[in-house]
Structure formats: structure tokens, C-alpha cells
Amino acid sequence: MQLDHSFTVPAAPDDAWKLFHDLARVAPCMPGAVLDTLDGDSFTGRVKVKVGAVQMSYRGEGTVARDESARSMRLALSGSETRGAGTVSAAVTAELVADPAGTRVRVRTDLDITGRPAQFGRGIMTEVGDRIVGRFATRLEELLSAPSAVPDGPAPAPAEPEAVDLGAAALPVLLRKAAVPAAAVLAAIVLIRVLGRRGR
After folding, report:
1. Per DSSP, what are the bridge partners of residue 97?
2. Does residue 187 or residue 57 have the better pLDDT?
3. What is the per-residue burial (b if ≥16 Cβ within 10 Å, else e) of 145-156?
4. Which residues contact 26 (CB under 8 A, 6 or more apart)?
5. Among the residues of 91-165, which ranges form H helices?
6. pTM for the full model?
7. I need a labelling partner for 134 at 20 to 30 A (CA). Which of 60, 96, 171, 184 fits?
8. pLDDT digits over 8-60, tens only?
């Protein structure tokens, strides 16, 4: 599954690119994620997501490769559920380009996911991705707006990441998907009642 997103941050491309080199500072901006270890271009971490009353926790690892001339970076990620058989792997490419508002970040994700989240399909996953990227962009903007308030080096990781609620993000899409079938069922019920009255 391929997903494309983009967002703009209010910083010059060189400043934004410098920040993207510091995963210890950028990772906490991602909702539901915690960076556990960082060793050069390799890292491990955890992600917790929630769909309604169901919570899923993933533990995984990844590597990052950068193209300085193109201001682009590629993340190779893989993980698995800590309590379940679900797996996830992704190749994420982020490209930074100049924009009148600062820097536009274009993100392409090639995602392969198994288990419970796989049932959502591309439409819902895109909607969920849009909302998560939106939260990430907001936190990144806050980080860029007040760099002096952020200490150097990695902050102590919390014991557990705060779950990002995919159910809340997916609900509007689920309702839209259900609207047409529900309307069809309602129309059928009305039609049956009308025909029943005419037959009496």
C-alpha cells in the first residue's frame, strides 16, 4: 500500500534539514511513538495505537539513510505486535523542498501491514495517515518555533508511549462508507412498507 502526504513547516530548508538529522528530537513529535535506542543510523522504538477499546502495541527497529544534496531521507522500518501476530514494515521517503511558507515536506510511505489494522483498507489508512501527519507537523512546527526550549540530546523515554487513537481518526471515514449501504437499506425498508400498504 502506497500513501502520500505533505506538510509545510515555517523554517528555511537548511534549518529544517538540520533538525531532521536529529532523530532524538524529531521522533517524539510522532503521535504514539517512543524512540528507545539510537545508534548511528539504526534505532529501535515502540508504537501504541488504539481503535475503540482495542489497543495494539508494536515493537520494532529501523535504519535511516540520507541524501544531503537532495535533502531527502529514507527510513526502513519493521515491527511486530507485542501481543499478537500482526506485523508491519514500511519504507518511508521524506523530501524537503523550498516553499514560500518555509519548507514543504513530502512523504511517501510504502506500507505492508498484517493483523487487525489491515482490515481498514487504503481509504481509511490514508485518512488516518493524514491526521497523524497533521499532528506530527503541528508538533514539529512547535519544535522549530522554540528550538532553545528543547534540550540537546535524547530525552528520557517514557515507560509506555501514549496510544494514538486510530478509531477516532477512522470513524468519519467508516461513517461515510456506511452512509450509502445504510441509505440503500432504509430505501428498501420504505419501499417494502409502501408496497405492503398498496397490497392491503
Report:
1. 104
2. 57
3. eeeeebeeebee
4. 19, 20, 140, 143
5. 121-145
6. 0.73
7. 60
8. 988 999 999 998 998 888 888 888 888 999 999 999 999 888 766 677 889 99
Query: For residue 115, what is the DSSP state?
Result: S
User: Could you tell me the maximum CA-CA distance found in the chain, to the nearest angstrom?
Assistant: 81
Q: Which of 71, 46, 63, 32 is nearest to 164 (CA)?
A: 32
Residue 190: predicted pLDDT: 52
Q: Which residues pair with 166 in a beta bridge?
A: none
Between CA 122 and CA 26 the distance in angstroms is 26
Identify the helix (H) or strand (E) that includes residue 64: strand 54-67
Contacting residues for 171 by C-beta, under 8 A, at least 6 apart: none
Residue 187, H or E segment: helix 166-199
What is the Cα Rg of the chain in Å? 21
Residues 6+ apart with CB under 8 A from 71: 13, 17, 95, 96, 97
Q: Which residues are CB-contacts of 155 (< 8 A; sequence separation ≥ 6)?
A: 24, 28
Given a cut of 70, whether residue 177 has pLDDT beyond it is no
Q: For residues 130 and 70, what is the distance between their CA atoms, to the nearest angstrom?
A: 24
Residue 96 phi/psi, 5-degree rounding, is -105, 125
